[in-house]
Design a protein that fits this description.
- Helix content is about 45%, strand content about 20%.
- It is α+β, with helices and mostly antiparallel strands.
- It has a single domain, classed as Alpha-Beta Plaits (2-Layer Sandwich), CATH 3.30.70.100.
- A four-stranded antiparallel sheet has the order 2-3-1-4, sandwiched between helices.
- The protein starts with 8 loop residues before the first strand and ends in a 15-residue tail after the last helix.
């Protein structure tokens, strides 16, 4: 389990729907997400809808996908299912498609310092929370699953949720905030974001 290639790979892909075509875009994106979830190696996928309308970035839709490893992610990105899904979505998007990826858990524990300059949009808070909770729960199940197998459901859930809250509050969330600070609290200059291959 020490190989980076065996770590979960998380993708965040941002798209903007063409005005007036949001409903059809959402319908096709939901179908695309369901296809991705059923693909071998995909651990889960979610479509994050725009949040506060006054935030410019919140006009974006965000597809969040988790894969068991980089090979599974690469297989999905080269699949005919993905190509068909992108072709279905393409007529309903405008502007650049921006992809961000996080591979493995070690990246979360690199120390970054600095004060928080403001409040990030709610969708970013939701994404970072998911990025923290998903691997935390995954690791706890891998470590404690066998030991707790004989426990009844309620005590098992009680222990796991307590551990998740403690680990998130004092370890994962602070490290994620430091690591993702440039994205959570971008500098107020309008830099060109790099478009890349969408998921």
């Amino acid at each position: 389990m020490s190989h980076a290639s065996t770590h979960p790979v998380l993708l965040l892909v941002s798209r903007r729907a063409k005005p007036g075509h949001e409903a059809e875009f959402e319908r096709r994106m939901e179908a695309f997400i369901r296809t991705a979830e059923g693909y071998p190696g995909c651990l889960g996928a979610q479509l994050v809808h725009p949040g506060d309308e006054e935030e410019v970035e919140d006009t974006l839709y965000h597809a969040l996908m988790a894969f068991g490893d980089a090979d599974s992610r690469n297989a999905w990105q080269g699949s005919t299912e993905r190509a068909a899904g992108l072709a279905s979505i393409e007529p309903y998007i405008e502007g650049q498609v921006v992809e961000r990826g996080i591979s493995g858990l070690a990246h979360w524990f690199q120390p970054h310092s600095g004060a928080k300059p403001g409040q990030p949009p709610r969708w970013k808070v939701a994404v970072v929370t998911w990025l923290g909770i998903f691997p935390t729960v995954y690791i706890l199940f891998r470590l404690l699953g066998d030991a707790l197998a004989s426990w009844s459901l309620l005590p098992r859930i009680l222990l796991l949720t307590v551990l998740v809250v403690v680990i998130m509050t004092w370890l994962v969330a602070p490290q994620l905030t430091r690591l993702l600070k440039p994205w959570l609290f971008p500098t107020p200059k309008k830099g060109g974001q790099k478009a890349s291959d969408d998921s």
